[in-house]
Amino acid sequence: MIEYPKVSIVILNWNGEEYLKRFLPSVTKTKYSNLEIIVGDNASSDNSISLVKNNFPDVKILENPINYGFAKGYNEILKRVNADYYVLLNSDVETSENWLQPCIDFLEKNNKAEACQPQILDLKNKNHYEYAGASGGYIDIWGFPFCKGRVFDTIEEKRADYQQNEEVFWASGACLIIKANRYHELGGLDEDFFAHMEEIDLCWRLKNEGGQVWSIANTHIFHLGGGSLNYGNPKKVYLNFRNNLWMLIKNLPISSLLWRLPLRMLVDYLAVLKFISEGAFKSAFAIIRAHFDVEWSLKRTLKKRTPYQKKLSKMRGVYNKSLVWAYFVKGHKRFSDLIF
What we know:
This protein is α/β, with parallel strands linked by helices. The chain has a domain at 7-223: Spore Coat Polysaccharide Biosynthesis Protein SpsA, Chain A (Alpha-Beta Complex). The chain has eleven helices and 15 strands. It has helices at 17-28, 48-55, 69-78, 101-109, 180-185, 198-208, 234-251, 254-277, 281-296, 298-302, 323-329; strands spanning 7-13, 35-42, 60-64, 85-89, 93-94, 113-122, 125-129, 137-140, 145-147, 150-151, 154-155, 166-168, 175-179, 212-223, 318-319. Strands 1, 2, 3, 4, 5, 6, 7, 12, 13 and 14 form a ten-stranded mixed sheet that branches. Helix 6 (198-208) packs parallel to helix 7 (234-251) and helix 7 packs antiparallel against helix 8 (254-277). The longest helix has 24 residues, at 254-277. It is globular, with a radius of gyration of 19 Å. The mean pLDDT is 95.
């Protein structure tokens, strides 16, 4: 008899009653022989808990006493979850019955592969990739993240030449599948991030220690996206720019960090000028505020550095050029336009 590793799908929820009502039914139909589904609740004030109790009796509920945000919210919940693999799944995700098995099979057969994601498609436009993860996450030499199928705001249609398993730089927090023991050994998600890019930071730490992150092509999910903060929200802009700089400070080798961080911060001010030219003054100020907070917290962030930092240019899933230059100057809007 085949013994399947235990998998826990954990959906972090905060006042997401409507999402749970709409999307949890598809998740509960997931076919896998050793599976539990958990809703981890961040002190919701709506009817989320009663909805799950009354309509999904097989779904386990774990509650946090307050809203810890995405990163700490997951860390606190996962301390109470005993499994071989965790699936961190957004509440606004629609799945098919057989989406999970190919991901677990791949991780079981490849020892160095410690995390992965399925392909992530747009629920509203199902023949297109979705912003949050598309066909796997990449990063450029300056630390700007992008995806195979999504570069900045350009989102591609699903392509036949993107349909292969591939080692990438990061897997999306919309559907991150990771070995449970590695999650805890790495310290979980960085709680200072609160939300946004914490999964990229986790994957970077994993890769710095020799692990691999993969995109699995023969399976997919559909993600609604923009559920907590829409993509142009100034708060999202602030979190993305702040957390991205924190991520560089934590994970780059010191010899690279000393020159790359100041230049990267100068590049950010091009984004400030762009937002000002578009009249998006709140977003421009959000970047300035992010820089101020990064500088104020520099000493604390430096203490988070581990002994393991690999050269970014030597890692899989890295575009060893400037994505900003390729996209805005050379007009390379699609992943397939980039020359690796």
